[in-house]
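Q: What would this chain look like folded?
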Amino acid sequence: MSTADQPTEPKQKSALTRVLIVICGLTAMVFGGLQMYRGVTEIAGAGDEPQYQQAIKESNDAIVGANQLSQDTQPVFLELLNDVDKLGLDDVRRQKQAAADQLIEQFGKAAAQFRLAAQKLDEAAGHHVKPEFKPYFVDKSQGYRHFADACDANQQIVRLVVDKSITKLDALLPKIQALAARRDAAEKAGVDAAAQADAVAKKLNVPTQ
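A: My prediction, written as structure tokens:
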């Protein structure tokens, strides 16, 4: 058999490529969690002041905005990380700066919306909410803040990708890994807080959305 006829060995992915693939996979999972995050269920008897109802509405509106921003960033963020491997840092920085700038802005807005949702929920809880309902509001608010932290970490990952002072991928990757781990921990804490809130609601016979 001639050399030309011999089957070619599949190209082996580098360790750096494999790590980027893992980070992309975890990123997709994080976005899945964000998309599932729900606003506060209407709780009969939890509070009846107009200020309470308004704060609940503003909190839920902020969650809708945060989730939409998170969904909008997903494909662009994953593409950016994939392009780091496919194109290399120099080409990504030349060709993807505008996309990176938009991601940085959107992640910042999403984090701000999550924190606004938490702030408004805290305000609602301060309007004569019955004591037995307090843990529900506390858990929901904490969850929102954890998801804001996850958005912050993703924003910092994008900043690192376009940081021209980092010239080598093997210098960039550990920094991205550290931020991805921090983001995943924040996202898990957010999911856990949501589950705790749902458990409280179940005990109080409150339907969850």
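Confidence is low (pLDDT under 50) at residues 1-16, 29-36.
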